[in-house]
Amino acid sequence: MTCACNGEKNKEKYFEPLYMIFEEYGPDDKNLIPVLQNAQDEYGYLPEDVLKEISSHMKIPLCKVYGVVTFYTQFHLEPRGDNIIRVCMGTACHVRGASDIFEVVNDELGIADGETTEDLKFTLERVACIGACGLAPVIMVNDNTHGRLTPDKTREVLDIYR
Amino acid sequence: MALIKINGKEHEVESDLSILEAVRGEGYEIPTLCYHPDLSISGGCRLCIVEDVDSGQLITSCSTGVTEGLEIKTASERVERARRSVVDLLLSDHPLDCMICEADGNCTLQDLAYRYGLNESTLGSKIDPRFEIEHDNPFIVHDPDKCILCGRCIRVDNEIQCSDAIDFINRGFTTRIAAALEKDLGDDDSTCVFCGQCVEMCPTGALTYKPSIGEGREYNLEHTETTCGYCGVGCKLDLKTRGNKVVEVGSIYREGTPNPVGEACVKGRFGYEFIDHPDRLKTPLIKDKETGEFNEASWDEALDYIGDKFNQIKEESGGDAFGALCSARCSNEDNYLMQKLMRAGLGSHTIDHCARL
Amino acid sequence: MKSLEELKEIRDKYKNEIQIRKKEFREEEHIHKAHVMVCTGTGCVSSGARDVVAEFNDELGSRNLEDEVKVVGTGCHGLCELGPLVIVYPEGTFYSEITRDDVAEIVEEHIIDGQIVERLLYEDKSGKKIAGYNDIDFYKRQKRIALKNCGKINPESIEEYFAEGGYEALGKVIDELSPEEVIEMVKDSGLRGRGGGGFPTGLKWSFAAGAPGDKKYVICNADEGDPGAFMDRSVLEGDPHGIIEGMAISAYAIGADEGYIYVRAEYPLAVMRLKKAIIDAEEYGILGDNIYDSDFSFDLHVKEGAGAFVCGEETALMQSIEGNRGMPTPRPPYPAVKGLWGKPTNINNVETLVNIPYIILEGPEKFSAVGTEGSKGTKVFALTGKVNNTGLVEIAMGTTLREIIFDIGGGVQGGKEFKAVQTGGPSGGCVPKEHLDLSIDYESLLDVGAMMGSGGMVVMDEDTCMVDVARFFLDFTQSESCGKCTPCRIGTKRMLQILERITQGDGQGGDIDLLLELGARVKETSLCGLGQTAPNPVLSTIKFFRDEYEAHIYDNYCPTGSCDELALPYWIDKDICIGCTACVNECPVDAISGERKEPHVIDEDACISCGACAEICPVDAIFQK
């Protein structure tokens, strides 16, 4: 979703989901992170206009909002793919060949760490341990965990989401 | 009061002080980078560490309070070794361009490198810059490569000036300081008011005054304490001059002044260009009615001329013919005298004031 | 619910429901014919446990057995490697690696005909099929206190928690004990913090209890982020009420009326179950105002992290709850005096808290009867890496590393030789084989340069390069450093750069000493626990595997062949080579020469160790040095 702020009406419509979030979370500093999390769920990422609206509505300086957004790895300032592929680089996965798995995904989709495919279908990320070490090596696609991967099995998993 | 032992010697100090304050108060030296008495405590630079004899730990003296019976070493071999390693690490991520740096001679990092005999880091030097220099606004230049992330600029901005214009962004080794959305300080989204206090607080050359670049460094400048002429607040300023030319305005930190923690506004800080401007009026001018030209006159001539005209107008048209507009740049006393002149001298109640600068 | 008596009534009602899962089960008491327990922890779910649950429901439904047989989704059993796991009661038969295709067979043969499905049983090292859950080596040697409910009850049912005696400990402290007495009990139990440092829990509580102030907070630190650790996740997913009860008791003890559970956002299932558990507890009046009709009130919130390992550090965690960047602040002031929003705050880890109800109900003596002199009770470890049985194990303190890795873990995968075990995650160290008989307790691990940490235990075999392991952990801590203090921000970066150049074959003489010096200073001068422990993996691998570092730097080779740039060249066994020339054509750098039908040779200097030749060789004549 991109902002097409041609007029007040469009703007209102664009921010409507955000105002719903504000109804649940009042303008209190402690609500900044939950508001950002919910806004990202809604918009897929955190566009500049959304950050500005959050800042002015919650009365939190924009530079602080931006500082918080850039501190936590969960937040993204660029549009993201429909499917988020997280390749676990935790210890258990590392010793069981996580970097090979990463390379397969990297080759298959032609995107590097943190990048999104041009068709906005996939975003690739290396992540720290996701706590499924028993199944190492593991990738997470959206909320689904796929474990005990081999390069071939990884390709099969990718095909499910293509 | 608390009895503490510093480097084996007993001292009685106020019990509500931090170790740093107490130790400095007793005349011992402790280096710091992120500490400033007017700002909240960060504890990030790690230079103020001292050795706690009881626990054997190195503790930060800025963030730890004194306690009865405390015994510390401020300059033991272990402490100095640790501090040296901190400076060494900072230097490994800092350009070695003191020769052309504006902050040369006024840089705590440079002083520390001198103190520990480090002409470069033992871990290798920073050859390529990691960041771009930000200088899109007319007043402040920010070079993140020279930044040691002490955060004093952020704290003075948030706690003293309350502009909330800058904060840390990113994290770890990629951390830097930026205005909202990483835009320039002068951008529409920036709340910076260019008070310049961040530059004053910067212990290195990461933040510098753009108009002062190339105008001389600390050791070239003379300091003159003055009162700002822009408004009636009467801020104390440190005019820095070189060869009788004002090249920079610094802060003065003193209790009892109107701006005790070095506050200034953009005019006080940067509005000194007029002093040497060729268009600046230095004598009164009287208009020649024939030619329409303005001719230089002495103050006596000018005042006599005005006095004569005042009398003439008052006789011909009465006091109501006068109106006066005075300025917020004048002190209360000046403004009082102005209205007195109008009411008692000329007999007019038409007095106004421009409340803008 | 207004009183402990009322709770006991509910408990007894539901106790019958789950009686079938107990050893002392008597047939005449049964309500159901069978209980099918399907593990729905994250590990098993990703192996397809949800399909298995659905299939059981369909299968039982189509045979009109849904009233007689209950299908229960449970928390983690620990043996994640073999998931999805299914346990059928009353027999307690343990089936592993179940897919939906196996379900009909279990229903038909086991539940209807009463015949165990041999084919699906767990098989031990010797190939013997084992039917009984408690007869499996992996479980037999464990001692379950923290994990006592994990896998035994439905974590989404507060009633099942009641049936296991849940919330009785809370009732007991409110009815019978003063806050001081509760703290004394926890002190007497000898419980120490399970999150890493091992600070005595009772003492910690007494600090927060003694701090002046009307408003106090308790926080559960569930920001488990160590790579290779998932103990807390399993408890959060498998026994959320255990944590809530532990927190309520700690709140009662220190005089707090509000609490936060700070949980990693990467644990969606844990967040969902915690939220449900809180709502259920509120409905029963176990959370909220005037709990058990007393003056004690307690509100609990879940706060999701946003992806920052450093927020596991308690001052950073509080910054994050307050809505700030998670940058730690100097201590003192300690959270017990000045914590969340400046109020006295007590912070405990998940596993610490889940031990509390047991200590209160069973008594501190029973808890402290387990363990060693200085380390009481049990510890949960996430056993991973090159070990046969990866999974979650809870053992009595004092158990040796050998028992965990070889007896419970079934030894090293693929018959390879054990090299080291890494404990304590990025803050810990590697323990080599000469210390395998080390008894596990806080002090003995510290003595060898490792630490208990939160409980990650990664087994490494002969193929694991210890320099690469150190580089891996430094890469992690370096990227998770908050950037506030100089030693951690720049020091870990410089250490990583040195390790990178060593693993890439550019190591320089003096690099080892430089790492030791830098590591010591970073430990000594960093602001928070992250930086203070970040050098440990490097220092401990240098201590025990210095020869591997030296091989990388001075001999320009990686003894395990893990570091690509330092891989050893290949060579051709003359006696096997048939001179087919396949390798000559395959070699990307033309390093192989030889006449057709004559043995070939590889120019070692030209060889880039890509291994293409060995792969193509039809007679397997090519080996790496």
Strand order of the largest sheet of chain B: 2-1-5-3-4
- Give the integer mean of the pLDDT values of chain A: 89
Global outline of chain A? elongated
Order of helices and strands of chain B: EEHEEEHHEHEEHEEEEHEEHEHE
Compressed to H and E, one letter per element, the order of chain A equals HHHHEHHEEEH
Helicity range of chain A: 40-55%
Main β-sheet of chain B: number of strands, strand sense, barrel status? 5 strands, mixed
The tally of helices of chain B reads 8
Q: Which pair of chains has the greatest number of interface residues, and how are they split between the two chains?
A: A-C, 41 and 53 residues
**Average of per-residue pLDDT values of chain B:** 95
List its traits.
heterotrimer; B: 357 residues; alpha+beta; Ubiquitin-like (UB roll); N-terminal domain of TfIIb; five-stranded mixed β-sheet; 16 strands; C: 625 residues; Rossmann fold; 14% strand
Describe this structure as you would to a colleague:
The complex is a heterotrimer of chains A (162), B (357) and C (625). The radius of gyration of chain A is 18 Å and the shape is elongated. By secondary structure, chain A is an alpha+beta fold. In chain A, strand 3 (139-141) and strand 4 (144-146) form a beta hairpin. In chain A, 42% of the residues are buried. Chain A folds into 2 domains: 7-71; 83-161, Glutaredoxin, CATH 3.40.30. Chain A is built from 7 helices and 4 strands; from the N terminus they run ααααβααβββα. Chain A has a 4-stranded mixed sheet with strand order 2-1-3-4, with helices on one face. Helices cover 48% and strands 11% of the residues of chain A. Chain B has helices spanning 19-25, 77-92, 108-115, 152-161, 197-201, 266-270, 299-317, 332-346, and strands at 2-6, 9-13, 49-52, 58-60, 71-73, 140-142, 166-169, 176-179, 207-209, 222-227, 236-242, 245-251, 285-287, 294-296, 324-327, 351-354. Chain B has a 5-stranded mixed sheet with strand order 2-1-5-3-4, with helices on both faces. In chain B, strands 10-11-12 form a 3-stranded antiparallel sheet. In chain B, a hairpin with a 6-residue loop joins strand 13 (285-287) and strand 14. In chain B, 35% of the residues are buried. The model of chain B has no long low-confidence stretch (mean pLDDT 95). With 625 residues, chain C is α/β, with parallel strands linked by helices. Chain C has 5 domains: 32-136, Glutaredoxin (3-Layer(aba) Sandwich), CATH 3.40.30.10; 158-368, 3-Layer(aba) Sandwich (Rossmann fold), CATH 3.40.50; 378-461, Roll (Ubiquitin-like (UB roll)), CATH 3.10.20; 466-564, de novo design (two linked rop proteins) (Up-down Bundle); 568-624, Alpha-Beta Plaits. The mean pLDDT of chain C is 92. Classes of the chains: A alpha+beta (162), B alpha+beta (357), C alpha/beta (625). The interface between A and B is medium-sized, with 13 and 15 residues.
